[in-house]
Structures are given as structure tokens and as C-alpha cells.
Amino acid sequence: LDADGDVVLGPVTVLAPAAAHVSDIDAAWNPAASKYGLFWQEIHNDDIDLYFQVMEESTGTLEGSPTPLDDYFSVIGTYGGSVVADGAGWAVAWTDLVVDLVLGEIGVSWMQRFDATGAPLGPATRLSDDPPTDGGVPILARKPGGGFAVFVSCFDIQPEICRLETDGAGNRLGSLTQVTPVDGARTGPNFDVAANGSDSLVVFADRA
Fold first, then answer.
1. 50, 75, 118, 129 — which has fewest CB within 10 A?
2. pLDDT tens digit sequence for 21-40
């Protein structure tokens, strides 16, 4: 869309195989690369596959093949994810679902960085505690001094929004910090974050 909201290009089909649908889509513009980074989850029955791919801005051309990030089985839906510009590339965060013999089904959040071509800059790094106290739905924000702030839905006390930090390579630093108050209401997992380069705005809904 242009500045007036008129269609300039598209729609461009990212991935739409037969008998599947796409969910939890996110995109981030990178001015250094003049490209978009795309993240999405493909759902086929209860099997969920997560992907990242780069799109050229002027033509909407998808570059190369989608990079598989993760896959998991879930009967209750997906766990969100986000992508942000990172230097000349992008950083992506997501949550997969694992089965623990004691805790049952739990979400584990991960992060991975990519260069301007969409090639991975090293392996994915784990963001969640072990055992996890966050419930996923990670949203990334760049920190002005380098590294990232990651906002997640956490369940240590009751559903609330928590924040953690990583270094520039995506390695977690320190502990989860609770952002929303424990006030008897359930917060999340539907929330969003906007960052202005130094501060972050977290918008969320409380439910009785």
C-alpha cells in the first residue's frame, strides 16, 4: 500500500499448500536491506510448521526458499511469534510446543537471527526458562544500545506479561521481569508492543 492506503502491489502468495492454511503472520521492513522479512506458521490439521523468508520491496519477489524454523503438534492452536529488523538482517522469535511427562504440554520460546539474504546467523537460541515459566507469544523489540527486549506471556503466578533481555546474538540475559500487575485478572496472551528506540509501550487486556 502507498501512503494513502491504495494498493501498489499484490497480494503476493507466500505459502499456501493444499489442505493447509497460514496463521500468526508478521513482517518487518529493513531500510538497510530495502527488503521485508516475513514470518508465518503453516497449519495442516494439527501439525504446525514455522517459516521465515525475505521479500524484495519493489517487486514483491520472494527470495530463495522459505527457511523452516520449527515444527510442532498442537490441538489448541498456535503460539505466535514476531520479526524485527536487526542491522542489515532480521531477528525472529517464536514458540513451539513440547510435551513434558510431569508438566504436560508447555510452550518453549526461541529466537534466531538472519542476514540480508535470509541466511541464518547461527542456530536458534532458547529464551524460555528450564522448566519454562513463560507461555510464549514472544514479541521482539530492539534495544538502542544493542540486543533485544522480548515480551512474553508468562504463567509463573497467573497469566501476565513478562519481559526478558538478550544480547546482540540473541543469548538470554538475566531473569524474566513481570510487566503487568498481579491484580486478580488474567492478562494475555493477546497483547502487542510498540517501541520508539528507547521506551516500549505494552498494550494488553485484562480478563476476570
1. 75
2. 888 889 999 999 999 999 99
d(CA 29, CA 123): 23
Residue whose C-alpha cell reads 515444527 in the numeric block? 71
What is the reported pTM?
Answer: 0.87
Q: Residue 108, exposed/middle/buried by CB under 10 A (0-12, 13-18, 19+)?
A: buried
CA distances from residue 110 to 4, 24, 53, 73 in whole angstroms, order as listed: 37, 15, 17, 16
> Interior CA angle at 93 toward 90 and 96, to 5°?
145
Task: Return d(Cα 89, Cα 32) in angstroms, integer.
Answer: 8
Contacts of 92 (CB under 8 A, 6+ apart): 37, 39, 52, 69, 81, 82, 83, 111, 112, 113, 114, 140
Each residue's pLDDT tens digit, 41-97: 888 888 888 999 999 988 888 998 899 999 888 766 677 889 999 988 999 999 887
Instruction: Give the type of residue at 148.
Output: F
